[in-house]
Amino acid sequence: MKYALSAILVAFRFGWCNSIRRFGTFSWCEDTLLGDTMNGDNSSPLPRVQNGEEPGFVSYAVRENVAWVMLERPEVANTQNLRLLNQLDDLFRCAIDDTEVKVIVLGGRGKHFSAGHDLGTPERDKHMERERKHLWPSHLGPVGAESQYVLEQDAYLGLCRRWQEMPKPMIAMVQGGCIAGGLMLAWVCDLIIASDDAFFQDPVLRMGIPGVEYFAHAFELPPRVAKELLLLGDRMPADRAYQLGMVNRVVPRDQLEKEVESIANEVADRPGFGMMLTKQAINHVEDLRGKRTSMDSVFHMHHLAHAHNQLTSDHIVGGLDAKAMAAANKPKK
Ligand code: ZN
Q1: What span, in angstroms and rounded, lies between the C-alpha atoms of 243 and 232?
Q2: Residue 332 pLDDT class (50, 70, 90 cuts)
């Protein structure tokens, strides 16, 4: 009931307006961005959301030269179903096409940034046909290992890579949990600003899987720390992530939005083409260091693990559902 009500509210909140709104004078506050207050102004520019064909899982607003893209599933810790990922991609396209937008902020409404891919909420949509963003076949036809492989090539690895290569800078605004697939969203951003209650975690080894699909672990962290993150699967607090260079700044929770806004406005003042080239320069250095090729090779290990799970437990994640993972993820006393 709670989920149904939330879905209705989200559909209502983002589905009723038929025009793309711009918020040059829009007034933000802690409640509107990170809290659960609904102000009715965050209409979606996506026609299928406006038409009510799909709930709005992501909101989009432009203030000055910054596009604020917010995950809108706070009732399930912003877990990512496939429609949410496609909406993200479409809204990033809006931000790229809007010449007034210089910087993108990616955040999540509510207590947590994102608890990862959707393993079992009522709006999980793996059974549904989806618009593919790359030239991979539908995951609904193939059997065996092929189905998950083509799905993840398109929706996970493919989208994350494309987002990391976007020509405009993107800032992750991270509070609370940033777990597994949540890491993927933070890592594709150019800057990560975290609140002091944020934590970072990849616990998928519990499922027999060597890390999430976008395997940037050993580029984001020193190799031994990356092994610790994966082998123990513990929560890495924001201050440690900052010390290791994975996070740019850590601020008190109640100052997170203000700090992100200040940095975004500062960055937005730089020449757009210069920023485009700067992003590509650093991305190019990372690729020369082997990021792309190592990610490709680990993606296939990831799928060997999915296939192994299917053979041994008839379940790609070893029979662990969201509830079991959440129970296992409780911090140690
Ligand atoms: Zn996977």
Answers
A1: 19
A2: low
CA of 204 to the centre of ligand 1 (A): 9
Whole-number Å distance between alpha carbons of 302 and 298: 6
Q: What is the pLDDT of residues 244-293, one digit of tens each?
A: 999 999 999 999 999 999 999 999 999 999 999 999 999 999 999 999 99
In the structure encoding, which two tokens stand for residue 331, read together? 């911090």
In a domain, 333, yes or no: no
Helix (H) or strand (E) holding 200: strand 199-201
In a domain, 174, yes or no: yes
| Host domain of residue 112 | 2-328
Which of 18-27, 66-75, 252-261, 293-302 is predicted least confidently?
Answer: 18-27
Residue 38 pLDDT class (50, 70, 90 cuts): very low
Say which DSSP state 230 is in.
H
- Measured on CA atoms in the order 154, 155, 160, 165, is the torsion positive or negative? positive
Indicate whether 320 belongs to any domain: yes
Å from CA of 212 to ligand 1 middle: 7
Rounded CA-CA distance 106/95 in Å is 11
Instruction: Look up the CATH number of the domain holding residue 52.
Output: 3.90.226.10
Residue 90 within a domain: yes
What spacing in Å lies between the alpha carbon of 27 and ligand 1's midpoint? 39
Count of domains forming the chain:
1
With CA atoms as reference, report the closest residue to 157 among 129, 136, 178.
136
**What's the 214 CA to ligand 1 centre distance in angstroms?**
9
Q: Is 56 helix (H, G, I), strand (E, B) or coil?
A: coil
CA of 34 to the centre of ligand 1 (A): 29
Tokens, residue 195: 């609140």
| DSSP per-residue string spanning 144-186 | TTHHHHHHHIIIIIIHHHHHHT-SS-EEEEE-SEEETHHHHHH
| Cα-to-centroid distance, 33 and ligand 1 (Å) | 30
